[in-house]
Amino acid sequence: MATHFTIEGLKAEIEGKEILKGINLEMKGGEIHAIMGPNGTGKSTLASALMGHPKYEVTDGSVTLNGEDVLDMAVDERARAGLFLAMQYPSEITGVTNSDFLRSAINARREEGQEISLIRFIRQLEAKMKELDMNPEFAHRYLNEGFSGGEKKRNEILQMMMIEPSIVVLDEIDSGLDIDALKIVASGVNAMRSEDRGFLIITHYQRLLNYVKPDFVHVMMQGRIVKSGGPELAERLEAEGYDWVKEELGIEDETVGQEA
Amino acid sequence: MTTQTILPVNAEGLRQLSEQRQEPTWLTENRLKALELAASLELPKLEKMRIERWDIQNYGSSKESAQLASLAEVPASIQELVKDQESGSLMIQRNSGVVYTKLAPELAEKGVIFTDLQTAVKEHEELVKAHLHTAVQADEHSVSALHAALWNGGIFLYVPKNVEVSVPLQAVFLTDDEEATFAPHILIIADTNSSVTYVDNYVSGDSTKAVTHNGAVEIFAKSGAKVRYATIHQMGTNVTDLSYRRAIIDNDASMEWIVGEMNSGDTMSDTYSILKGNGSTSDSKIIAVGSGSQKLNYTTRANHFGKSSESQMITRAVMREEATAIINGITKIEKGATKSDGQQTEKVLMLSPKARGDANPILLIDEDDVKAGHAASVGQVNQEQIYYLMSRGISREVAESLIIYGFLAPVVSQIPLESLQKQLQAVIEGKLGQ
């Protein structure tokens, strides 16, 4: 079945403060969407609300994946339904090795008795780590513990590659990456492009989009998508910044909490 | 408040018992003296807990246990623990007495002694007499006094000079008769430059009637000796466990404690290294899981007398349901113990709002030229971590157990015996109800 992901009128708040004020977005398998915007406009909140972070409360709207109600699912159910969020600040978990964690994640998608064999898992893991130019030793390190910023990001991409989700949300995956790491991460994403997989790339900067070409670009301000376009929109934002968008829409302060 | 200790046996009864066992006169006298002490001494003082309120009077009386002709006859409750041990060195104590003893012939040839302590007091009288109750002493409090009066069965392990034993010796202590006194005493002497690993398990049967385990472990690591002592206590809710473990460590000797506190009943344990010799070292790893309404009081101690002595103490405890744990670490460095280094860490992870944990790191330093450090933390499962794991499709239950095992793993993974690691892992799983 072709992947179809729909966000309609999504509103969410944290500690009583509304951050998302009605997000509408439609994505199909094979498409890459980029959400751009300055800091404080609600981009990461969107990512967290989609995944179901307990601190964010969705107050209105709907999210469906292939017709299924995502908002009705617990975090782990959303993941098993095909949603994946590469986080901006992944947790560090002492005592849980990267490989044990990944194997648990893969087996969570399989029936009891159908668990992935250790050999097959290790082969896959080693191959993907090689693609991402990761030191094989990272498989046996505790999850994200003592990883540098760039290593954590690569580890997020590694998880995506192992889990093979149908909707991938990348939350500022490019922040803190040097150009070489950025290229590796981008090639990891490109390797995963497929007709039945959609990507939602959240970023401030155009630079990742030089390596991963988006089909659609959306600008977020004040908790809404205020402008959408093709890849040329990202290029213009990179060249001219966000001021022209604000001017065009009559926005003084683009951060959440300010009204146009 | 003075609490009168109710003696489970009178002097005449104790004398008769000792004579029946044909114990040497000095031992009979020791027992009687200890019984007198038990009547006059106070209970031990536990940090932030009142042992007076515990159910610790259930000593029963000494009963004969039938010998096991072979491992095929062991009770079901311990079958798993002793399987594949036909050829290894193994001792089993059931209630008041040792019922199975086997020492691997190659160790016997090297002069290793591995026998029940009641036999050892007769066959190796001088060795036993010179060490028994010199580490854990009868006059410390009423619990140690009662132990010295009542101890039964027990283990005596002696490793001669320069003998290195590579395969662990094993013992199992089973209480499955609540009317029988259960007070094993473990005495280990590792002579100069020897090395040995000893592993034991404390298990209870199906009985639900209250039993008090009053046990003591005394270890003597002579110069240059290496002793590794691993113990897993997994007794049921009906057993109150009082365990004193102590090692006296001579010059350049090393002691390693690995303790799995997996009981389901109230437990007081005190694991104590006395670093007497210069260059002596001690390493303690305590893993604990508490559940139900258990009251738990775990203390690890290191007392440095020798110069350049080093101690490391780590306790990790997971408390679920309504369990309460007080975890004490006491590092004491005496004047003159220059260049010593004492480090300790206590961490408690609480899984429910009603669980309680308290970590008390204490450093007592009487010498300037030393290093010492401590770290302690008490906390709940981190919800961000749960979210992160769940965001990869892992259920909340599995996520929690990954985090709990992760919390214990840095210590469990350091346990040098793979079989023990696995065993401990299985007991932890059982205790966590998975």
UniProtKB/TrEMBL annotation, chain A:
InterPro entries: AAA+_ATPase (IPR003593), ABC_transporter-like_ATP-bd (IPR003439), ABC_transporter-like_CS (IPR017871), FeS-cluster_ATPase_SufC (IPR010230), P-loop_NTPase (IPR027417). PROSITE patterns: ABC_TRANSPORTER_1 (PS00211), ABC_TRANSPORTER_2 (PS50893). The keyword Nucleotide-binding applies. Residues 5-247 form the ABC transporter domain. One of its GO terms (molecular function) is ATP hydrolysis activity. It comes from Paenibacillus mangrovi. This is Fe-S cluster assembly ATPase SufC. Keywords: ATP-binding, Nucleotide-binding. It comes from the Bacteria. It holds the Pfam family ABC_tran. Belongs to the ABC transporter superfamily. Ycf16 family.
Automatic annotation (TrEMBL), chain B:
Residues 29-170 form the SUF system FeS cluster assembly SufBD N-terminal domain. It holds the Pfam family SUFBD_core. One of its GO terms (biological process) is iron-sulfur cluster assembly. SUPFAM superfamilies: Stabilizer of iron transporter SufD (SSF101960). It comes from the Bacteria. Residues 174-407 form the SUF system FeS cluster assembly SufBD core domain. InterPro entries: Fe-S_cluster_assembly_SufBD (IPR055346), SUF_FeS_clus_asmbl_SufBD_core (IPR000825), SUF_FeS_clus_asmbl_SufBD_sf (IPR037284), SUF_FeS_clus_asmbl_SufD (IPR011542), SufBD_N (IPR045595). Belongs to the iron-sulfur cluster assembly SufBD family. NCBIfam families: sufD (TIGR01981). This is Fe-S cluster assembly protein SufD. It comes from Paenibacillus mangrovi. The lineage of its organism: Bacteria, Bacillati, Bacillota, Bacilli, Bacillales.
